[in-house]
Specification:
Blueprint: H1 2-25, E1 38-43, H2 51-59, E2 66-72, H3 79-89, E3 94-99, H4 108-116, E4 124-128, E5 132-133, H5 138-146, E6 151-155, E7 159-162, H6 167-189, E8 199-203, H7 204-209, H8 222-232, E9 236-239, E10 245-248, H9 253-270, H10 272-277, H11 283-293, H12 298-322, H13 333-346, E11 352-355, E12 358-364, E13 367-370
Parallel strand pairs: 1-2, 1-4, 2-3, 6-9, 7-10
Antiparallel strand pairs: 4-8, 5-10, 11-12, 12-13
Helix pairs in contact: 1-6, 1-11, 1-12, 2-3, 6-12, 9-13, 11-12, 11-13
């Protein structure tokens, strides 16, 4: 009966997540009183799928004045060819390209950002991942939220966008759109103010007040640490009214599993209790477990069918509310929930996290250390 109870809780959470997304989607777009110039920092590492399309969405922002600083650590990085094409496509754009291999701490993304810092021209900063696809009004929404009284940092939800038509890509987007996204909204509704690292916007003065980028250099979860530092100043973290998309680049199921495993281990290192409790958001796993433990009892099969129906309806409702392409087939939902639980269980095997070719160890909440005594292992 325990599995049946967890199924029921999961169904309530799925429905609540759907309603939270519906309310968020109905929020009126914010309009800033003024539009100060913005510097966007874009750390890059390799020519990933849909990279040019993602970066072009930032180059084409509908905003009065902004600068983009791209940072790379390898002079032979193939992303440089993408940037050359963007220069030709957007000749009037204020763009800087920084290639600097200097290391600062163990987090190479933060090291990249530190190397880019001397090229910042404006006081409002937006740090955005390379695989983010932004709507034209993305910057306007970030600035509008940042201008609100008491706000020190702005972040965004994000949806998953498969880089191809593969089942793996759709499974990855399913996890982001129907588990992470509504879960993040519900957490905020319960009072949490998490910084979601795909987008982080703040004033340069705020960043300096918490020790600047070097304060993040030895942290695996640099976004969570930045959020905590900003809140320690008595400032809040706002959620902007825009939902960019992140590329789901994995072509094979094993790659997707490893990517989600990195997320899971990072989250577990930060919020161990919350990580365990998040397992209830996969009701089809618990319903399948109830079927097995009950010996295939009729009531258990009915619970499984109900869980399947509610999961499918909530996913459809979330996609419709946010204007997303339909997610995975209804028939794949049981596999998706079971895979999510498998990822969670696998996250307990080790504290090593592989990210962009770098293998790190989460030694205590938010802190990272090299996982290899002879250096960092560059195996993505």
């Amino acid at each position: 009966m325990g599995a049946a109870g967890l199924t029921a809780i999961g169904l309530v959470q799925s429905s609540a997540g759907w309603l939270a997304v519906e309310r968020f989607a109905r929020r009126a777009a914010m309009v800033p009183d003024r539009c100060p110039p913005v510097t966007i920092l874009k750390p890059l590492h390799g020519d990933e799928p849909l990279l040019e399309e993602a970066l072009a969405s930032f180059c084409a922002q509908d905003y009065p004045e902004f600068q983009i600083v791209f940072g790379l650590q390898d002079p032979a990085d193939p992303a440089l060819a993408v940037l050359a094409r963007l220069r030709r496509r957007f000749p009037a754009l204020d763009m800087a390209v920084v290639v600097n291999p200097t290391a600062h701490g163990v987090n190479r993304k933060v090291a990249n950002l530190i190397n880019m810092a001397s090229h910042i021209r404006h006081d409002v900063l937006v740090i955005a991942d390379s695989d983010i696809h932004a709507a034209p009004g993305y910057l306007t929404q970030l600035v509008a939220s940042l201008m609100a009284p008491g706000v020190g940092l702005v972040t965004t939800l994000y949806a998953g966008r498969p880089s191809g038509g593969t089942l793996t890509g759709r499974l990855g987007a399913e996890q982001i759109n129907h588990a992470f996204l509504p879960g993040a909204l519900m957490a905020r509704g319960l009072g949490r103010q998490d910084c979601l690292g795909a987008t982080m916007a703040l004033r340069r003065q705020t960043l300096d007040s918490v020790g600047g980028l070097p304060a993040l250099a030895d942290h695996l979860a640099d976004d969570a640490v930045l959020g905590r530092l900003v809140k320690s100043l008595g400032l809040s973290i706002a959620l902007a009214g825009t939902v960019p998309a992140t590329t789901v680049a994995e072509a094979h199921l094993s790659e997707l599993f490893e990517h989600e495993l990195r997320w899971a281990r990072t989250i577990r290192s930060l919020e161990a209790v919350g990580f365990v409790m998040s397992s209830v958001q996969y009701p089809l796993f618990w319903a399948a477990l109830a079927v097995g433990l009950s010996g295939g009892a009729g009531w258990a099969w009915l619970a499984f069918a109900l869980a399947w129906l509610v999961r499918g309806a909530s996913g459809y409702g979330i996609d419709r509310a946010l204007g997303l392409a339909p997610g995975t087939s209804l028939w794949c939902l049981p596999f998706r929930d079971i895979m999510s639980i498998a990822v969670m269980l696998a996250s307990y095997r080790t504290d090593q996290v592989a990210w962009r070719g770098q293998t790190l160890r989460a030694t205590r909440p938010g802190l990272a250390s090299d996982s290899m005594t002879s250096g960092v292992s560059w195996t993505r």
